[in-house]
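Hello,

I think I submitted the zinc ion job twice by accident. Can you confirm which output corresponds to this input? Input:
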Amino acid sequence: MALRVLKYPHPALRHKSKPLRRVDGELKDVIREMFDLMYRQKGVGLAANQVDLPYRFFVINPEGEPTKGREFVFLNPVLEKRSGTAEAEEGCLSFPEIFAPVKRSAKVTVSAYDLDGQEIRCEFDGLMARAVQHEYDHLDGVLFVDRLSPTGLLSVKEALAELEREFEGDRQRGVIPDDQKIASRLERLEQLRT
Ligand code: ZN
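Support: Only one job matched these inputs. Its output is below.
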């Protein structure tokens, strides 16, 4: 299965993902491929719906390199606690070359399952806290540009319009299916694992 990262404004990025009920070898292969794709595109996190899968999970490696850092897999994550505020520049693999400051909680406690079915519960701050909140948003169909200040939004408006034009062009060329086809594909995948 060849995964690719969907770019804004692909409708799957607005899909609210459902909890996973089945984890098997195939899903483990998908997760391995997501890490590899993320490293190739110089990202530190990737959510399932960014690769057109309607499930509640995401992967993070805060170092963004296969030989460094730690690979985190969060299945069916829940943000249990948030505290403080921190602002820093963010980007997203679904928004190539767009960066803008986003206010997030400074610290979060997240519980989730790992690939072995073990429950994990961790407190994070710094980049990990930011990445967890960014990826968690993806699962609810929320994108980092939704959280920009009016000034921040203004600064990326032209770049967003350019992505929208590219998307429309891809659609006219038949590279991207229509909304109905995208929705029924996601629904079929949901029936398999949620
Ligand atoms: Zn993102």
